[in-house]
Design a protein that fits this description.
It is a single chain. By secondary structure, the chain is an alpha+beta fold. The protein has five domains: 396 residues, no CATH class; 71 residues, no CATH class; 292 residues, FAD/NAD(P)-binding domain (3-Layer(bba) Sandwich), CATH 3.50.50.60; 167 residues, Succinate dehydrogenase/fumarate reductase flavoprotein, catalytic domain (Flavocytochrome C3, Chain A, domain 1, Alpha-Beta Complex), CATH 3.90.700; 74 residues, Cytochrome b5-like heme/steroid binding domain (Flavocytochrome B2, Chain A, domain 1). The protein contains 39 helices and 31 strands. The strands form eight sheets. The chain has a six-stranded mixed β-sheet, with helices on one face. Strands 16, 17, 18, 19, 20 and 21 form a six-stranded antiparallel β-sheet that branches. A hairpin with a 5-residue loop joins strand 11 and strand 12. It is globular and about 95 Å long. GO terms for molecular function: FAD binding; FMN binding; protein-disulfide reductase activity; thiol oxidase activity. Belongs to the EROs family. It is found in: Endoplasmic reticulum membrane. Keywords: Disulfide bond, Electron transport, Endoplasmic reticulum, FAD, Flavoprotein, Glycoprotein, Membrane, Oxidoreductase, Redox-active center, Signal, Transport.
């Protein structure tokens, strides 16, 4: 009631203010009031909304976004049962016609013929086929793909052979309510998260009219809309509730993205909302009623749902879905909202006086429901049809649960998905009513304020061509122009031109605004003769394709020099594979810091790893610039790189990493923060979820821009710049037909990979269309150690077991319990020794792709685990490492004889005392204790994985892309894994982050800056700290209340932070932040990040956790 009273007070105030401007007042509509008891249910709107706000909404929204519940199997190609409608759709006829609906074609045989439908001439369908199905987006894992190989599921249709003796039809009668009769085409698995409900422009008036008129149970001749029976009223209110929910979704997502209008996403239209509901508040009450019916079904289905086997192939996702579902079904929630979950009483339905009436009513009810479901096959907009069919299946599932009085309801996987999504949809719709009401009220308040300010310019205003123009005159002119734009009387481009003229104090424009401010039509006509101003923005100095470390390094160097850039990233987050790098970054910084290391030693190690394909000119650039690259990351970006380690293939310690964090995550966080600080200056534009489809060239072959496709809208557009930098990464995750992996290394197609699914060689393909050369394309690095997740061992996507795990003293043991290699050898050497465990490979030296990839144990002592604590904590948190006390339990875990394992460790300890072992290892760190039973081990299973592509685009020492003849392609540059030649046959551990930083920075420092600008963040500038501000105490109870995506508080090391806005910028994705909302995230934070990173969140601190 408090919220509604607030609305009422605001409405009264607005009406009073509007009275002062009655001549020009906007059409202000009354707020639809929905408070009070719900008819046909034992609860009121206020209780329902409170339950939804406090608990249900958050759980439902999280649940619908899990893998299991966002994948829905649907038939979008079933033919429309109304032949005349199909003809109408194909011929696009304009005349008005009448059609029979319900009793013909493939309508249910138990249903009576329904009503007539009038199809008006303005109901021309608008077809939208931009659906994202799994066929186009791909599955997240092989296990998921195998799991989702669903068979077509059809409920059994039960027909009674003998008359019933009971007053009701048996429970089996309702089993097929979810399955309308008719032919079924091929069903498709659709990702609901990628196909949200929004305004597509489709006119569904004729569909809704047919649906409503189909709701005609025809029990007797006296039935009418004015005297509906309970069953007809319930069905009508359910359909009305669905209609209301659909309308609210359209209102919330009404205006599509538009560069012209400056809209980057769908925006709401509160006027449309008020137009639909201000005279029909009962429609919103029907939405509430429908939600109550669904919640009652949820309560009744709880035992079945609680134990349902949720399985998608993603163990973590499945467990999340189970936890959320059980939380939704938790008795405490059901009890605390008991009046909401039990408000609808289904036992009151089908209680007519005579047996004949009850049976007829039941048959007609189901028949009408089937016919309404079939009508949805006539919808010509695929996205509209998707959500309509899902909601009707959700309704059908709920009704089946409610009407099966004795037998427990049997629900298929798809029915449960539809059921939960429909409940979540209605939960969201109830919130949208308030959101749209707020937006409407705010818009009316803004109109009142603008009418007071911009009705006309002050009569005393003095117009002059110089600085003598008063602020009132300028403010009034800009306000008038803004008003014209808001009311869509001028296009955005013209609005920008007029504002530019006003700010330049154009006397003609200001005079017109002064004297014609009250007559907009005359002002528009007269202002059209004023000269236009060229408001086209200058071209950026460079377009950067890809947002990993190479792309961000180039961007930050250009921005620091006063330039401007556009960064295009096809994923939803910045960082790419760089964000996943964990071992560190190599560098020879200075003699004082290097110890026994030297530039020559570093150069030799890199050259030796590169082998026969070594390009010494590129290696020299990499090594000689390594010190300045790490210094720049430390001083400019603020990354802690204080620790050093010696990794495999290195002769000295030179791999730098943070003291309390993962190298890649820390570097990417610092880089994106530094780059985003320039966003407020307008000199950097970051386009996420946009893919570059081709390069644009001029008549001379110089690259002058790119052509892009927006993943959300499928819109194609062009951007221009004198330089394009490719930083798109490699191709190790692309197993598609014709992929570079299939072309150059087909025997590796079945190997798992650590690369993100976005690693598909896009940049290489773009460059090759212009004749760019490639090099070393067959050189794909197989990293020796990728973690095998015991919960999902067959998943082709693996987490890298960082080189550091062997660098601190981890050893590799085969299934016989033996060591077999120098763990500090190069990646190629260790991998070769691993693969040699396969007899065919040992004999031929070539991998047989039909063979299983072997697995091994990686074992760390307690001291090694302590040195790599950050990594160990992270891998343990992910379930990839196991803590094991004593060698006996370790032998059991490995399934090898204890005596054999003891001998292996004893030989290793003896070799350390001798200074070398049989495999050539001479460095022994963090040895296990002599008393092996008292040692605490950390062990996990590893396997060789595709990790890095040494091959790629041919470049020179300055990062220019070279064509097949070795000549530069004007305007085209490349850095990072998209390039080839830097690493030769095999990349040295720690050189990938270095390559990205060095070559990205080289390109960024030499790109010409057309118009250097000095404004912007200074080097080393961070967020202003408020350490000295007195922070209030925040209780655990208060913290728990801020637990949604839109209100996300997290406690870290005793301080509560508001991370709502940061979540979308989190390099690892917002989900990991949202999962901590309302709780303590210290453990999760420490597993990945350095505590010093929190200094950048000083302004986000809410208080101290009490």
């Amino acid at each position: 009631m408090t919220l509604l009273n607030s609305f009422t007070r605001r409405c009264v105030l607005l009406l009073f203010l509007l009275g002062a401007f009655s001549a020009a007042a906007p059409d202000f509509m009354g707020i639809p009031t929905t408070a009070g008891p719900l008819d046909d249910a034992k609860c009121n709107v206020e209780d329902l909304e409170q339950a939804n706000d406090l608990q249900l909404f958050v759980i439902l929204q999280e649940l619908r976004n899990t893998t299991f519940f966002r994948n829905f199997l649907v038939d979008l190609d079933r033919p429309c049962p109304l032949q005349s409608w199909r003809k109408k759709d194909s011929e696009q006829e304009e005349e008005e016609e009448e059609f029979e609906c319900g009793g013909n074609e493939e309508a249910d045989e138990d249903a009576e013929p329904a009503c007539h439908v009038d199809l008006s001439s303005n109901s021309n369908p608008f077809s939208s086929n931009a659906l994202f199905s799994m066929a186009t987006t791909g599955f997240e894992s092989k296990a998921q793909k195998d799991t989702f190989k669903w068979q077509k599921q059809t409920d059994i249709v039960v027909k009674d052979e003998e008359p019933c003796e009971e007053p009701l039809l048996p429970d089996s009668f309702w089993i097929d309510i979810c399955s309308p009769p008719g032919k079924t085409a091929e069903e498709k698995l659709v990702n609901l998260a990628m196909n949200p409900e929004k305004n597509t422009g489709y006119n569904g008036t004729h569909i809704w009219k047919a649906i409503y008129e189909e709701n005609c149970l025809m029990v007797d001749d006296t039935n009418s809309k004015e005297l509906m029976c309970l069953e007809e009223r319930v069905l009508y209110r359910l359909l009305s509730g669905l209609h209301t929910s659909t309308t609210l979704s359209i209102a919330m997502n009404y205006y599509p993205p538009s560069k012209r209008k400056g809209r980057t996403d769908y925006e709401a239209n509160p006027d449309y909302f008020m137009e639909k509901f201000h005279d029909n508040p009962e429609h919103i009450r029907n939405l509430h009623f429908s939600y109550v019916v669904l919640l009652r079904a949820l309560q009744k289905a709880a035992p079945v749902l609680h134990d349902f086997d949720i399985r998608t192939g993603d163990i973590v996702e499945d467990e999340t879905a189970k936890v959320l579902l059980r939380r939704l079904l938790d008795s405490a929630i059901l009890q605390s909202c008991s009046n909401v979950f039990s408000a609808f009483d289904e036992s009151l339905m089908f209680q007519q006086d005579t047996r004949f009436d009850v049976v007829t009513l039941q048959k007609n009810f189901k028949g009408v429901f089937h016919n309404v479901s079939s009508i949805l096959d006539c919808v010509q907009c695929q996205q509209c049809k998707l959500h309509g069919k899902m909601a009707m299946l959700g309704y059908g599932t709920a009704l089946k649960v409610l009407f099966m009085r004795e037998e427990p309801p049997v629900m298929t996987r798809n029915e449960i998905v539809a059921f939960i999504n429909t409940i979540a949809k209605f939960s969201e719709s109830i919130r949208q009513v308030r959101e749209l009401t707020h937006l409407y009220l705010e818009k009316q308040e803004q109109k009142v304020a603008k009418m007071k300010q911009t009705a006309a310019l002050p009569q005393h205003t003095t117009i002059a061509s110089g600085d003598g123009i008063t602020v009132d005159a300028l403010d009034g002119a800009v306000g008038l122009i803004a008003k014209l734009g808001q009311e869509n009387l001028i296009e955005w481009k013209r609005e920008a031109e007029l504002v530019q003229l006003a700010l330049q104090r154009n006397p003609e424009l200001l005079i017109l605004a002064k004297h014609y401010g009250n007559d907009v039509s005359k002002f528009l006509e007269l202002a059209s003769s004023i000269g236009l101003v060229d408001t086209e923005a200058p071209l950026p100095d460079a377009i950067i394709v890809g947002s990993g470390l190479a792309g961000l390094s180039a961007a930050l160097n250009i921005l620091d020099r006063g330039g401007s850039v556009v960064i295009i990233e096809k994923e939803h987050l910045l960082g790419g594979n760089s964000n996943k790098a964990s071992s560190g970054i190599n560098a020879y910084v200075s003699p004082e810091e290097a110890g026994a290391d030297s530039l020559d030693s570093f150069r030799n190690d890199t050259t030796r790893s590169a082998g026969s394909s070594a390009r010494q000119d590129l290696i020299d650039v990499l090594v000689t610039n390594s010190g300045s690259a790490v210094t720049w990351l430390r001083e400019r970006v603020g990354v802690d790189l204080s620790l050093k380690a010696q990794l495999g293939g290195h002769s000295s310690k030179r791999t730098h990493r943070p003291s309390n964090g993962m190298a890649g995550a820390e570097i990417i966080y610092g880089m994106q923060k530094a780059v985003r600080e320039y966003e407020q200056t307008g000199r950097v534009k970051i386009l996420l979820d946009n893919r570059v489809s081709s390069l644009v060239t001029d008549d001379n072959g110089a690259v002058i821009g790119v052509e892009c496709i927006n993943a959300g809208t499928d819109e194609a557009y062009k951007l221009h710049a004198p330089n394009v930098i490719l930083a798109t990464g490699g191709f190790a995750a692309d197993r598609s037909s014709g992929s570079y992996l299939e072309q150059y290394r087909p025997e590796l197609l079945k190997f798992p990979t650590t690369a993100g699914p976005f690693s598909t060689g896009d940049g290489i393909s773009l460059a090759r269309t212009l004749g760019a050369g490639t090099v070393d394309m067959s050189k794909v690095q197989v990293h020796p150690t990728g973690w095998v997740d015991p919960k999902d061992p067959d998943n082709t996507s693996k987490v890298l077991a960082a080189e550091l795990m062997r660098g601190v003293g981890g050893i590799l043991i085969n299934k016989e319990g033996d060591r077999f290699v120098n763990e500090l050898g190069t990646r190629a050497h260790i991998t070769e020794r691993m693969l040699s465990h396969d007899p065919i490979y040992e004999k031929t030296g070539a991998w047989d792709k039909s063979r299983p990839v072997p697995t091994f144990s990686l074992v760390l002592s307690s001291s090694a685990a302590e040195e790599a604590k950050k990594h160990v904590d992270l891998y343990s948190h992910k379930g990839l490492l196991t803590r094991i006390e004593g060698v006996s339990l370790l032998a059991q875990w490995m399934n090898v004889p204890k005596a054999k394992l003891v001998k292996t460790f004893q030989d290793y300890l003896n070799a350390s005392k001798a200074g070398s072992d049989a495999f050539g290892r001479v460095t022994f760190r963090n040895l296990p204790a002599e008393s092996l039973e008292n040692e605490v081990f950390y062990a996990g299973t590893v396997t060789p994985v595709l990790h890095y592509c040494m091959g790629g685009i041919t470049i020179d020492t300055e990062g220019y892309v070279l064509n097949v003849n070795g000549e530069r392609i004007p305007g085209l540059h490349a850095a990072g894994e998209v390039t080839g030649g830097v690493h030769g046959v095999n990349r040295l551990a720690g050189n990938s982050l270095l390559e990205c930083t060095v070559f990205g920075s080289l390109i960024g420092r030499r790109i010409p800056i057309a118009n250097p600008v000095n404004s912007g963040p200074k080097q080393g500038q961070g967020i202003k700290s408020n350490k000295d501000t007195l922070l209030r105490n925040v209780s655990s109870t208060e913290l728990q209340q801020h637990n949604t995506e839109d209100d996300c508080w997290v406690a870290i090391h005793g301080v509560v932070y508001d991370l709502t806005e940061f979540a979308s910028e989190h390099p690892a994705g917002p989900e990991s932040i949202w999962s901590l909302a309302g709780g303590d995230g210290t453990e999760a934070f420490d597993a990945v990040h350095n505590k010093g990173l929190l200094e950048d969140f000083a302004e986000d601190r809410i208080g101290l956790l009490s």
